Structure formats: structure tokens, C-alpha cells
Request: fold
Amino acid sequence: SKDWGTKRYMSMIHLEALDVMTDSQVTAG
Reply:
């Protein structure tokens, strides 16, 4: 998540949102 999520967070923010819930604030910053 912290790897691909950070890159696709801007594009797949709607999908990443599900991953963020699991990783808490890993991809938040």
C-alpha cells in the first residue's frame, strides 16, 4: 500500500481510500 498506494493515490483515490482504511495513515503522507 505504502508503495503503490502513494503513486496511485492521486489517480485511484477512490480505490485507494479502501486501502487507506486498512493501512490507517500509511499512504496519508
